[in-house]
Every structure is written in structure tokens, then in C-alpha cells.
């Protein structure tokens, strides 16, 4: 090593070799990105070419049918929205509260380390495992049946670790000086969290929430496991009524289907027309997912813009 440092030729040769390897890895990375983007463009392009021509008002307002020309996604997109509503109501408060407690209140000991490891591992568990857990607990033990409530709680369990981890990371990114300044003027721990920590970290928390919800929108395996219907022609009861008490919760116990399951049903049929319907439903699901992510970016931008450090 010392001899090489004393020899300028050896140094130049080493630098050239490292430069060549660096250029090779840059080329390899760009090539991999190009292949991934090209594949994505081809898949989305094929989806648009096949499904876009049949996207019309009738397709959105018609229930499934044995006739592909009459089949639509009314029950599927309504079911998706109701299931995701339950998922958000259950997962977001629990996930954010758990993240706040673990980061700000929990004592730093072996038990916290054990919980952190398990939460991180749960974020990588296959979704079918959550479906089996929900089947045993929500369907057989709690007797909730194959309902919207069961589906929403199942997906809430699925995205709960993601929300907890995102909340903890967002809170951890807040400078310690903000906490110390709040304590210095007499604020309690909760006042510090509510008035300073949460507003500053809300952008990161919302990003984690929306990413989790985007994942839940496209899940199929856990919902199939708990008994989601692949063919349903009626809508759940309306959440709002025109008479007192104006709010109904009967829809929570209704059978359901969602967009991914409706697509699975159509793709499994041999007729080409049903394949086209599945492509159109895929476009709707893609737009929904992109819309949710766009909302996350907008909310994060608004929160960051409204905060003055």
C-alpha cells in the first residue's frame, strides 16, 4: 500500500479503475431505471388503449352483469369507498396515537425495543396473513360476518404498522430545540406535542397515512380470504337518511365487493369483452390511487407552507 502511494503511475491506474467501475454502475443504474419505466409505460399504455373506450357514465352507474355490454362497476367503487372509509376511521387515530406514545411517552427500555422490532416486521408481513387473522378473529370469534366492517378493520390492521412507523419518523425529525423551547416557557408535554410537534410533523404523518391508504385500495388477498363477494348487484344501505337520526350504520354489516375483486372476477372469465371491462376498472383504480397520492403531496405542501420555523 505504501509503495503504491509512492508510485504516481500506480495511483493513476487505481483512479482510472475506480472511475471505470463508477461509470459502469451509473450505466447499470440508468439501464435498470429505463427498463422499469419502459415496462410501466407499456403496461399503462395497454391498459388505456383497451379500457378507455368503454369508460362512460353507464359503466360507472351499472352493477355487474352476465352480459359484458351491460356490466359496470357501481357496486365495486361504492364498496371500495365505504371499506376505505372504515379503514381510515380505524387505522389513522390508532396509528397516530401509537406513534406519539412510542416516540414521546414510552420509556426507553427492552420492551420498547421489542415492540419496535415487531412493528417493523409487521409492516413486511404478506397481506394474506392479515386476511387469515381477520377470518379467525372478526368473522368467527366476533361474528361480524363478511361485512364492510370486517373488511375495513382487516385493511386497518394491514396499514397500521405503516402509519405507526411514518408517525414516529415524522416526529423524530422535529428538532429537539423546539421541545426544549416549549418546556422552557412552561408548556406541558402534551401542550408541546399538540401545539408544536404535531403541526410540524403533520406533513410526514399525512404522507404515511395516504401511502397506507393507497396500498389498501389495491389489496385483494385479505378481502378474498374474509369472504368478499365477486358478484353483487345491490348497494349497501345508505349511510345518510332523510329522517331522524339522519345517520345509519346498517351499511357496516352489508356484504360488499371492491374494485380489485371485481377486476379479478372479470379477468378470470374467458370472454374478451370482460377483459376489456377489467382494463377499464383498472384505469379507475389507477386514477383513484394517483388521486390519493396527489392529495398527499398537496396536503404536505400546504402544511409545510403554513409552518414558520
Automatic annotation (TrEMBL):
InterPro entries tied to this protein: MetI-like, MetI-like_sf, Phosphate_PstA
Q: How does it sit in the membrane?
A: Multi-pass membrane protein
Q: GO CC annotation: what is one? A: plasma membrane
Keywords from UniProt, A to Z, are:
Cell membrane, Membrane, Transmembrane, Transmembrane helix, Transport
Q: Name one GO biological process term.
A: phosphate ion transmembrane transport
Spell out the molecular function terms from Gene Ontology: phosphate transmembrane transporter activity
Q: Which residues does the UniProt record annotate as the domain ABC transmembrane type-1? A: 77-296
- Looking at the UniProt entry, the stretches that span the membrane are 75-102, 122-142, 148-166, 197-217, 279-299
Q: Where in the cell is it found?
A: Cell membrane
For this chain, the family text in UniProt reads: Belongs to the binding-protein-dependent transport system permease family. CysTW subfamily.
> What is the recorded name of this protein?
Phosphate transport system permease protein PstA
Query: Which species is this UniProt entry from?
Result: Thermosynechococcus vestitus (strain NIES-2133 / IAM M-273 / BP-1)
Amino acid at each position: 500500500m505504501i509503495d503504491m502511494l509512492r508510485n504516481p503511475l500506480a495511483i493513476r491506474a487505481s483512479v482510472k479503475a475506480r472511475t471505470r467501475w463508477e461509470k459502469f454502475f451509473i450505466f447499470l443504474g440508468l439501464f435498470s431505471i429505463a427498463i422499469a419505466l419502459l415496462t410501466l409505460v407499456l403496461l399503462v399504455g395497454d391498459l388505456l388503449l383497451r379500457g378507455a373506450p368503454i369508460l362512460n357514465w353507464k359503466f360507472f352507474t351499472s352493477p355487474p352483469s352476465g352480459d359484458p355490454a351491460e356490466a359496470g362497476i357501481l357496486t365495486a367503487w361504492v364498496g371500495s369507498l365505504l371499506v376505505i372509509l372504515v379503514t381510515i376511521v380505524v387505522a389513522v387515530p390508532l396509528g397516530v396515537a401509537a406513534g406519539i406514545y412510542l416516540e414521546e411517552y414510552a420509556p426507553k427500555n427492552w420492551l420498547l425495543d421489542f415492540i419496535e422490532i415487531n412493528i417493523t416486521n409487521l409492516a413486511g408481513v404478506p397481506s394474506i396473513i392479515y386476511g387469515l387473522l381477520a377470518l379467525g378473529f372478526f368473522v368467527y370469534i366476533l361474528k361480524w360476518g363478511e361485512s364492510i366492517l370486517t373488511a375495513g378493520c382487516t385493511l386497518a390492521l394491514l396499514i397500521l404498522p405503516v402509519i405507526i412507523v411514518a408517525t414516529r419518523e415524522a416526529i423524530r425529525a422535529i428538532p429537539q430545540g423546539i421541545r426544549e423551547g416549549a418546556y422552557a416557557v412552561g408548556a406541558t408535554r402534551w401542550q408541546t406535542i399538540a401545539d408544536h410537534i404535531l403541526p410540524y410533523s403533520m406533513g410526514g404523518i399525512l404522507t404515511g397515512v395516504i401511502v397506507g391508504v393507497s396500498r389498501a385500495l389495491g389489496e385483494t388477498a385479505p378481502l378474498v380470504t374474509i369472504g368478499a363477494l365477486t358478484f353483487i348487484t345491490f348497494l349497501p344501505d345508505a349511510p345518510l337518511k332523510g329522517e331522524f337520526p339522519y345517520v345509519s350504520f346498517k351499511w357496516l354489516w352489508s356484504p360488499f365487493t371492491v374494485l380489485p375483486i371485481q377486476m379479478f372476477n372479470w379477468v378470470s372469465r374467458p370472454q374478451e369483452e370482460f377483459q376489456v371491462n377489467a382494463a377499464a376498472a383498472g384505469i379507475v383504480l389507477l386514477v383513484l390511487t394517483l388521486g390519493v397520492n396527489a392529495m398527499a403531496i398537496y396536503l404536505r405542501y400546504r402544511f409545510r407552507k403554513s409552518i414558520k420555523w
